[in-house]
Amino acid sequence: MYQYDTYDQAMVDARVEEFRDQVRRRLAGHITEDQFKPLRLMNGLYLQLHAYMLRVAVPYGTLSGAQMRMLGDIADKYDRGYGHFTTRQNIQYNWIKLEDAPDILADLASVEMHAIQTSGNCIRNTTSDQYAGAAADEVVDPRPYAELIRQWSTFHPEFSFLPRKFKMAVIASDTDRAAMRLHDIGIQIVRNAAGEIGAAFYVGGGMGRTPMIAPCINAFVPIDQMITYAEACLRVYNRHGRRDNKYKARIKILVHELGKDEYTRQVEAEFAHLLTQNIEPPLAELERIKGFFADPAFEVGAPDVLDRSDPDFALWVDNNCLPHKQPGYIAVTISLKPVGGIPGDATGEQIRVMADLATRYSFDELRVTHAQNIVLPHVRKADLYALWQVLDANGLSTPNLDQIGDIIACPGLDYCSLANARSIPIAQKISQRFQGREQEIGELKLKISGCINACGHHHAGHIGILGVDRKGTENYQLLLGGCEGADTSLGQITGPGFDEDGIVDAVQRATDFYLSNKQDGERFLDTYRRLGMAPFKEAIYG
Amino acid sequence: MKILTGNDLKTGAVTWWDGVQWSLHVEDAVDVGDHAETILARESAARRVNAAYAIDATRDEQGVRPAHIKERIRALGPTVRPDLTLKPADPDAGNWVI
């Protein structure tokens, strides 16, 4: 994985000291909260419902064992013993003291991490496929391209005050595991008929109050022009994106209002101009970065069989493990969704356990997924049972990947100052209600947001739930038919909302209807797409 | 009644104006009537509170109860982690929020 050079480290260290001075001045009363707020937000420090919240960047979701271990130590040393992994492959701490924040950032910097650009109207952490470098279906490892984007977008002076926040995702396979088309810019690394590598640009996607699927505006940008093209996309947005109304300031609104063709025309014109300016990083830099993402030293001839005699282990393998490109290896997803648990939360001890397992069994590497789980990307099949036993002993062996209990949920009104309703209790009740029925129901991606900002990706859930404030009372809308993969679609609202218990009953009626009407091999989403909303609505509302 | 709430500058902890200083406990909150702006300006300037504002609340036999669920969650703590609330030993504490 990528390692900081002296410039990276110097920039991050300088930022820590700069923020330490800003905090000192705030605590001494030399600057007001209005002056301080944008400074702390630039360093990922929010003021949430109960305390300060620190959001730490995990570039493209990739972590080393030492970095993961530090995240666990921070949870215990500065927070209340846990952290929350987010849908943007980051981690958040909910109980941070302002006076501790500079020390936390210094600890993070010691393992090449930071919280820069995890807030504000800038280019946020670039996300990617959690199986990058392990998946058999990828054209190339997308992470070097994500890293190049990280370097380009960090402290980019022209894009530090965009009309609104800006999120990018990079994938390199047709199986979209990063919700790529629901980002401001989604990039798919592709290979053309001549065997050349390029970037397909999808621009203007997003969730929030106006969900949109990004259209492809250029199916093949030569890879040695990718940054220049991204710069052109951002320049047009920065020039024309609305700054008068924050609800219409995202690039998706600009692309929609201009129209894809006109937006593309302007981007291409800007791109042609920028090509004359030679702003593209030299290919040698991309090659240098690629060197950090070379395959680990896989054991050639590693045993390619598993002893499945332990039924609990076999169930977990079937549900949580993905075939690896290297014979004898497998990619493991650790579910952070125990039945009745809080999606995405892990204790400091659990975080350290996962770090140690990565060091011992996965070439010291972990990934955070946008579904709020953790991946050990490169595990020898011969080591899998021993690894599973450690997970099982630490409450980390829930076999429910992509099933109804593997719920994405935002922090909701239990933690978030923007939320209108609680998300986590709904997730807990649903996972408890369906305990033991996950295998029967099969793949069903359920996603819950506590407000219209859609951090819980409810638009993209096979079943989505949106919490709203109805005259001071929590109310939950139900959506069906969303999907974030290669066949991205947006969920549709079924009808009137429900109270806390009613929404769980409604989910059960929807899944019962699916089980009664599915055809062979159909997932919930397939049955919904075949039958449409009407019969599901009839089943839900009677 | 109108009560005042904010966060402690150093810790970020939720606090409530008790007429003299800022308390961690909503039951200590007092009705500030028409004096909210004056108190908030004075206390914010002195850095005794951060990001403070006035909210509606009621007082009944159980004490002071903010009108909105968001403020009740702020007053107690996350409903999904009773061990981290101000009343970890009270099994009914979460009911007060809802």
Tell me the layout of helices and strands:
The complex is a heterodimer of chains A (542) and B (98).
Chain A: H1 6-27, H2 33-41, E1 45-47, E2 52-56, E3 62-64, H3 65-77, E4 82-85, E5 91-96, H4 101-109, E6 127-128, H5 143-153, E7 168-171, E8 185-191, E9 197-203, E10 216-222, H6 226-240, H7 251-258, H8 260-275, H9 283-292, H10 311-320, E11 321-323, E12 329-334, E13 345-347, H11 348-361, E14 365-368, E15 374-380, H12 384-393, E16 408-409, H13 424-433, H14 438-441, E17 446-449, E18 463-470, E19 473-480, E20 492-493, H15 500-517, H16 524-531, H17 533-541
Parallel strand pairs in A: 6-7, 7-8, 16-17, 17-18
Antiparallel strand pairs in A: 1-2, 2-5, 3-14, 4-5, 4-13, 8-9, 9-10, 11-12, 12-15, 14-15, 18-19, 19-20
Chain B: E1 2-7, E2 14-17, E3 22-23, H1 36-45, E4 50-60, E5 63-66, H2 69-76, H3 93-97
Produce a short descriptive summary:
Chain A contains 17 helices and 20 strands. With about 550 residues, chain A is an alpha+beta fold. Chain B is about 25% helix and about 30% strand.
Describe the structure.
Chain A is an alpha+beta fold and 542 residues long. Chain A is 36% helix and 18% strand. Chain A folds into four domains: 6-109, Sulfite Reductase Hemoprotein, domain 2 (Alpha-Beta Complex), CATH 3.90.480; 127-291, Sulfite Reductase Hemoprotein, domain 1 (2-Layer Sandwich); 311-393, Alpha-Beta Plaits, CATH 3.30.70; 408-541, Sulfite Reductase Hemoprotein, domain 1. Chain A has 17 helices and 20 strands. In chain A, helix 1 (6-27) packs antiparallel against helix 4 and helix 11 runs antiparallel to helix 12. The two termini of chain B are 20 Å apart. Chains A and B meet through helix 13 of A and helix 2 of B. Chain B: Pfam families: DUF2849. Chain B: This is DUF2849 domain-containing protein. Chain A: Belongs to the nitrite and sulfite reductase 4Fe-4S domain family.
